[in-house]
Structure formats: structure tokens, C-alpha cells
Design goal:
This protein has 15 helices and 16 strands. The chain is α/β, with parallel strands linked by helices. The protein folds into 2 domains: 220 residues, Glycogen Phosphorylase B (Rossmann fold); 160 residues, Rossmann fold, CATH 3.40.50. The protein has an 8-stranded mixed beta sheet with strand order 5-6-4-3-7-8-9-10, with helices on both faces. The relative contact order is 0.14.
Length: 408
């Protein structure tokens, strides 16, 4: 199924492939990452995956990011993609101003080099790009994940009257498209005053070319989580649930495996000690091969208090795993109750413990849930469809005559 965004911002399932044949010049897109890059976050990883998908379709992609880590140079390469970093002195406030000025200057100087500026984390760089949009003439797509921007970020309702946030909101009016990856986030954006025609509902994409069948691992019932170890991710809830589950099922061979790192790791390890489950909980740290990780699991848990559209849930479902997830944000877009997994109220460790027990006692049900989830992800979130949807949007402004003539 192909993903195409219609004029009202919704997803159309039939791509007008004949239109793609009209496009004469190879597209050149600048991916802007407003954070450390390469980085460990979902937005950074998703940007790399999307760039690879675009490259396979003949699109030239380059990356631009601030020099967050001083050991990083001005020019770099990752997976064959050129990275340009904005150099600036790491001095509080002064450094940020210099960085934003140099960023604006770069976009102006390179305005004939790219057909679109695709910003993958909506922060101050998005606002600056919006301010100079009339100068560059280059269309802007900015991605809003759904959590950070509304919790302390540019769209936080508690900061509506903050002068900096107010100026950023005004600057974002010049952004051509705001990509939202979940239905809940789109509703929030409409409530925040964004125009319907400005919103693109295009989800994160995932490589669906290598589907696997559910398989019996071993005699140990293995529960897993993959992601950052931060309080908002709710891993402490999972530990409480696992402890309750173990107390009721001491006869079972079980283990809990946590992949990822973050600021809450020490507290989580101490919680394991206090609950008496330290010997059954493995902390893997940051992992490179997530597909191998999912192959070791019987069930996947996403206990977050806030999410955009979690890549880890998509990957777990593609690996044909049943998913137990908190009933929030993008989890609701992905997990269908009793079809591909189960939802529980965020923070409800007792309900999660019961769901873990149900899964441990019914392998046939888990297999069915896993297959259903795999089919859903393969049909609706394939990277190929997402890439084609973006390609059409990248080209759109060209055909309306809104771009300056490109210098080749």
C-alpha cells in the first residue's frame, strides 16, 4: 500500500505513480537534525532510515546539524551520507545565538543546492528556517513527534505566553508542512492553531522486506523493552509489574531484558535490588542490532507515559511479537486491543502484571497476536510507501512554480 498525503493533510492509499515520471531532475533534500547527530534517539535513527529509503529512489540527501559534541568536526559522513555541522563556541547563550546565525547563513548560501529542507526535530532551527523562508524560497517540512514539542518544547501549552515560544510559533507559520506521525498529535496541532492544509499525517517508516515467522525461543519466558531509560518511558512501571508477576508465578522460568541507556539507569538498577529481581533483569545498554534483540523475546512491553510513534513498538510488531503498551499517543495508533496486543493505563503496574501472566500461559494467543501485528505494520508502515509520499511532497512546490530556478 502506498502512502500519499491529500490536500487536507490525510493519507491517500494510492500513489499517482504517473506523476513521479514527470519529475525531470533528481531531487536534492537537506535533512536538518536539531540535536546531536549521529545520535541515539528515535528521531535521529528514523532520519537515517528515511534517508536510505530516499537514496534507493534516486534522491540525494545530505545532513546538517549543530556541533553538539566538541570532538565532532565540521564535516563527516555516516552510512555514505555527507554531514555538515554548524560550528559555534560552546558558551551559554552567546554560542546559541552564533549557531543560529550561522545556520541561517548556511541555508541562504545553499538555497540553490536543495529542493527541500526537511527538519526532523522541531526546535529553534525550525523557527529560524521559517523566518528566512521568504529569502531562500526553499520549501520546509518539519517533523513533530508528539511528545517533546508539547512537553517543554515549542508547543507546550504551559509556555503559550513565553516570549521565545510565541516568536517561534509565529515563525513556524512560514513552514510549508508540519509532519505529524500519529492521529493524536495531529489533533493537538490543530488545537494549537495549525492550519489543516499545513499538516501531513505521514507515519514513521520501517523496512518490511525481511519478515520473520514467530518461533519458540526456549523454556524461559522472556519479556523485553528497547529504548531510552528515562522516567517518561515508564520502565520503573515495568519493573514493578514484573516483580508482581514473578511473585504469582515462581514456578516459571522468566527474565526481563532491557535494551538502551539513559539518565534513569542507576535508579532502575536500585529498584531491581529493592524488589529482589536483580538476578532476573538484564541491562544490555545501547545495542546496534535490534532485530537480533527482538528474536530473543516472547513478548514486548512499551510502558511509556508519552509517545509519538515509537519505532521500538513497530519493530517488535514486525518481528511478530505480541505487544503490551500503555494506552497513550502513538501506541494507540499501532496496537489494536486483543488483535495485535493489549493496552493498559499508563502507570498501572497491576494490570500490566496480569497481562504478562496471561501471555505466559497462552503461547497460541501470543503467536496469533504477533502475526496480526506483523501484517498490520507490513501493510501500513512500509518504508517504501512512506518514501513515495515524501517524494511527492518534495516535488509539489516545484510544479507550483514556488521555487527559484535551481542552478545545476
Amino acid at each position: 500500500m502506498s502512502i500519499v498525503v491529500t490536500s487536507d493533510g490525510e493519507v491517500d492509499t494510492h500513489l499517482r505513480s504517473s506523476n513521479l515520471k514527470k519529475f525531470r531532475k533528481p531531487l536534492r533534500v537537506l535533512f536538518i537534525i536539531d540535536s546531536r547527530f549521529p545520535g541515539l534517539g528515535g528521531a535521529e535513527n528514523q532520519a537515517i532510515k528515511l534517508a536510505k529509503g530516499l537514496r534507493a529512489e534516486g534522491v540525494h540527501v545530505e545532513f546538517l546539524a549543530p556541533q553538539v559534541m566538541q570532538e565532532h568536526g565540521a564535516h563527516d559522513e555516516v552510512d555514505g551520507f555527507k554531514i555538515t555541522r554548524i560550528m559555534y563556541p560552546h558558551i551559554k547563550k552567546v554560542g546559541a545565538i552564533i549557531m543560529l546565525f550561522r545556520f541561517a547563513l548556511y541555508l541562504i548560501k545553499s538555497r540553490n543546492d536543495f529542493d527541500c529542507h526537511h527538519i526532523h526535530i522541531t526546535r529553534t532551527l525550525t523557527a529560524v528556517a521559517g523566518v528566512i523562508r521568504p529569502i531562500t524560497g526553499v520549501p520546509i517540512i518539519t517533523k513533530i513527534s508528539g511528545f517533546f514539542e508539547f512537553e517543554g518544547g515549542v508547543l507546550d501549552p504551559k509556555k503559550t505566553f513565553n516570549p521565545v515560544n510565541a516568536l517561534m510559533r509565529i515563525a513556524m507559520r512560514n513552514v510549508d508542512y508540519v509532519q505529524t506521525i500519529s492521529a493524536e498529535t495531529k489533533s493537538k496541532l490543530l488545537a494549537a492553531g495549525f492550519r489543516q492544509e499545513q499538516l501531513l499525517l505521514i507515519p514513521n517508516g520501517i523496512d518490511t522486506s525481511n519478515l520473520v515467522m514467530p518461533r519458540k525461543k526456549n523454556d524461559t519466558f522472556t519479556i523485553g523493552y528497547c529504548g531510552r531509560l528515562r522516567e517518561v518511558k515508564g520502565v520503573h512501571v515495568l519493573l514493578d509489574a514484573y516483580s508482581t508477576f514473578r511473585q504469582k508465578n515462581k514456578h516459571l522460568n522468566t527474565e526481563l531484558v532491557l535494551a538502551g541507556s539513559g539518565s534513569a539507569e542507576d535508579d532502575l538498577r536500585e529498584q531491581c535490588n529493592q524488589l529482589g529481581i536483580a538476578d532476573e533483569v538484564r541491562f544490555l545498554g545501547t545495542i546496534e542490532d535490534t532485530s537480533a534483540f527482538y528474536e530473543t523475546l516472547d513478548v514486548y512491553v512499551q510502558p511509556s507515559f508519552a509517545e509519538g510513534l515509537p519505532n521500538s513498538v513497530m519493530e517488535a510488531m514486525l518481528a511478530a511479537l505480541p505487544v503490551l503498551a500503555s494506552d497513550i499517543g502513538g501506541n494507540q495508533d499501532l496496537v489494536s486491543e486483543a488483535v495485535s496486543g493489549y493496552l493498559f493505563d499508563a502507570g498501572d503496574s497491576d494490570k500490566l502484571a496480569q497481562l504478562l501472566e496471561d501471555c505466559s500461559q497462552n503461547s497460541e494467543m501470543c503467536q496469533k497476536l504477533g502475526l496480526n501485528g506483523q501484517g498490520y505494520i507490513a501493510e501500513n508502515y512500509g518504508m517504501g510507501s512512506v518514501v513515495k509520499g515524501f517524494i511527492e511532497k518534495y516535488h509539489e512546490k516545484q510544479y507550483r512554480g514556488n521555487l527559484p530556478n535551481r542552478v545545476d
